[in-house]
Amino acid sequence: MNFKFDKNALFSKCVGLCPDPRVLLLVLVFTILGFIIWTERVITSKSSFATKEAKSCDDDCVRLRDLLRDWPEKKPKAFIHYLVQVARLSKLLKSLKSLDENFNDKYHYPVVLFHENLSANDTHNIRSSTKSDVYFQRIRFEIPDFLPSNISEVVHRTQIGYRHMIRFQSKILYEQPIIRGFEYEWRLDDDSLILQPIKLDILDFMRRRGLQYGCALITKEDPRFIVNLWESSSKYIASNSITPTFFYKWNRKLVFYNNFEVSRLSLWLSKDYQKFIDYIDRLGGIYYNRWGDAPIKTIAVSIFVPKNETYLFKDIAYTHKFYSTVAGL
Questions:
Q1: What digits encode the pLDDT tens for the residues 257-271?
Q2: What's the pTM?
Q3: Is 326 in contact with 228 (CB distance < 8 Å)?
């Protein structure tokens, strides 16, 4: 059979039934315009999100994330960090030198320095004095808004800064954008000194052994600085129906001396710890009673971490203030 297409016959049948071509053209134009407007909004929205992300992550933060993208597959994603004060830079440089010579010249982990007010000259001098790859993260200490405005009258002004440090090491640290993407952290203080070469990569050791928390020393805590802290933690355990790992077996006079602290970040970023530290924080004891970050974290570990996933690095030659793993120091 032969079929012949008759466009005139088709058009004659369409008359009165098909839409006006001009209407179709307008519909097409508005559809295209609508698509263009929607596309621009999506792009603007993504750009706005990227801008907010960029504001929360400064140049060093971005540079560190770039480093993570090319991280060696067999090396644990870990960083070493300090909280830095301008007045104590000479101590920091001494600590960094001991870290370089006895560990980081060999293992090459990034070092993050948290600070309030280092100048460009300060950061230059620090970078010039160490072989480690250093990254800076500016922070801002503030009195929590749930505390009364006269807290500085209750707590002597010269002691407020120490309370800020405690709150940072136990809570605010884990809110910093620069730590995202890492698995392990190693905290040192500016007066922490490693006295002899460390014979193994302790961060890799933590990962291979499936450990969550490690330190170099266990010491006695001043009873003045744990008033009601253990009791408040007991109430938290009871009210939340928690079965702690070794909280009830731990000697409450002792703490993990956490100026040398190696830990898995997922511990501190977990919902369990975040809920616990929010509770402790809002009790106000960090500011009123000077609850330290060492007892707070000791308690948290004794609640949430199995004892066999903690480790004491007693073979590392380390000293901090009056305490040392080396006899006679």
A1: 999 999 999 999 999
A2: 0.82
A3: no
